[in-house]
Amino acid sequence: MASRYEDIKVNVKVKLAALWTSVMFCYIYADYFALYMPGKLQGMLAGKMVPLGPVTQGVLVGTSVMMAIPSVMIFLSVALKPKLNRWLNIICGGLYTLIILITMWDWAFYIFYGIIEVTLTGLVVWYAWKWPRQETASS
Description:
The chain is 69% helix and 3% strand. The protein is mainly alpha-helical. Helix 1 (12-34) packs antiparallel against helix 3 (57-79), helix 3 (57-79) crosses helix 4 (82-103) and helix 4 packs antiparallel against helix 5 (108-129). The longest helix has 23 residues, at 12-34.
C-alpha cells in the first residue's frame, strides 16, 4: 500500500501574508548586508542617505512609510475582506515590484535579493489577480 504526504489547500490570504513576510525578510537582510559596503557607515554617520541625500525628518518619514506598507500588508492580507484585499495586493505588489526594479541595480547581492523580491511581489500580484471566486446562491 503506497502512502502519500498530507497536503492541504492553503487559503489565498495566507499565501499573500506569507509572501509579504518573505519580502520583508529579504528587505531586512539586504539592508543589513548593505551596512558592510565600503563607505556606508561613514555616510550614515555624516547624515547622508544614498541616493536621497542629506537625512532629514522628511526623508526618514518617507522611507519609513515606504517600508511600513509591506509590513502592514502582512496583517491586511489576512484581515481584509476579499474585494479590497485583492485590489490592495495587486496595487501594492505592482508598486513594490517597480520600486525594486528601480533600486536593485547596484552590488551583486542587491541584484540577488532584487530578483527574489521581484519574484515574491510578482507572486503577490499573481495570487491576488487569480483570487478564487466563490459561487453564491441567487435569491
